[in-house]
Design goal:
homodimer, alpha+beta, Alpha-Beta Plaits, 10-stranded mixed sheet
Chain lengths: ~260, ~260
């Protein structure tokens, strides 16, 4: 028996998210099917981040156990032959039998991308949230600064979430225009942290957009944190603007 | 009667190119349908660049004549309501009755994008050509430099093309990694010129990829130009990597 870790990139457009669903195709399902077919035994992957329906990833992580003799690092090549073109294994590697990325100290980075122009750009429509309002980036940065550090993010978490604590640490939050995007119209909110609550990055994005539009002042983000009430923060921004872009393991220094 | 010009962006993935086809949906067809529906009269647009099946654009141009009273600059808004989300009118404006972008002095810029990594990235698969070979960018630049200026590009033109002359002027050709692309893996060949032959940019891209792979030396591009024979140059790179990104009018200085 050995444990293999997969680094998985996907275009989430056509999927009902990562996690297995009774009604709807998911990334996890496609991986289980392709691995079971490839290795000739029933495989069940366990993912590191359960991304929502429509969310994209460059580097989600998953582990599975197998009796197969195929070397771990060869699995990526064979598996990509069996996966649809909107899911790709960027790397596969053998890890210790008790290793799981969810229980390691990691820093994850998400990018929320906003197409900020008068009209949406067709070739970016599946990967950005279209926002035609003029956005004040400086105010968005001021608002974002309140979120950096350890805080109770209860106001930035969907009510459905069942967790022991809503305290999380945001390591870094940047707001910038991607200068190499067409016309420089793509605004990026890049957030990294040790862990995120359900919908947390999308609620942060929805709130910062409200600040950028001038609907609420940057300082109100501090009151949102203090109030610990989802009603106080902004709307949950649409899933398609969100991408999981980086996974860093603190102890080993490995980056995916 | 007035003439209106449209600045049209599209994701070419689902279309059989710009030009009307007996079998297959095209951008031109979608524009004619939406305009005819909007303005209540039979409209036929005339495009500036007949992009191929699968090619994308941020700024193709088209003109049409109409008796409708709707101000030219309002047409973009109303038309976007009637178009599929992979076609968007970025701007509409009234132009002189005898104006056609095809007969003006213009400089067009195309980008050919290559995803240069071990595996394709799902969210870029429709907008880049996947190339897993290591590419020598310096050699690609050396090869590209031979193409800048006025030359007979007969070797860089598909044989089917029927044109009076195959002499064209390439104003500029750059080869660079887009540093803001995921992992910096996206290689861009940016070419601008006053006019392009059929498949010219895709043949240039296919040739520079061969040079980057080390299959042919940079200097051989000079022999290709001199030989005036399509057999001498590289393959036609796939359509999906190509995007029409900029249109500049030399006299007015207008840029779309």
């Amino acid at each position: 028996m050995k444990r293999v870790m997969l680094v998985v990139a996907y275009d989430g457009t056509q999927y009902c998210g990562w996690q297995l669903q009774p009604n709807g195709v998911t990334i996890e399902e496609k991986l289980n099917e392709a691995l079971t077919d490839l290795l000739g035994e029933e495989i069940r992957v366990s993912g590191a981040s359960r991304t929502d329906s429509g969310v994209h990833a460059y580097c989600n992580l998953a582990v599975f156990d197998t009796l197969a003799r195929m070397p771990g690092e060869k699995i990526s090549y064979a598996l990509n032959q069996r996966l649809p073109e909107d899911i790709r294994i960027r790397r596969s590697l053998e890890v210790p039998e008790n290793f799981h990325p969810r229980f390691e100290k990691t820093v994850k980075t998400y990018e929320y991308r906003i197409w900020n122009d008068e009209f949406p750009l067709p070739s970016r429509r599946l990967y950005t949230h279209f926002c035609y309002y003029k956005l004040d980036v400086e105010k968005m940065r001021q608002a974002g600064a309140y979120l950096v550090g350890e805080h109770d993010f209860k106001s930035f978490c969907s009510v459905a979430a069942q967790v022991e604590t809503t305290v999380r640490t945001v390591r870094d939050l940047e707001v910038f225009y991607d200068e190499s995007s067409p016309g420089g119209h793509e605004l990026v909110i890049r957030v990294s942290g040790e862990g995120f609550l359900y919908n947390m990055v999308r609620i942060i994005a929805g709130t910062l957009i409200e600040v950028g539009r001038g609907e609420i002042p940057p300082e109100s983000v501090k009151e949102m944190l203090d109030g610990c009430d989802r009603q106080l923060s902004g709307p949950t921004a649409p899933a398609k603007g969100l991408t999981l872009v980086k996974y860093e393991f603190e102890e080993s220094g490995e980056v995916y």
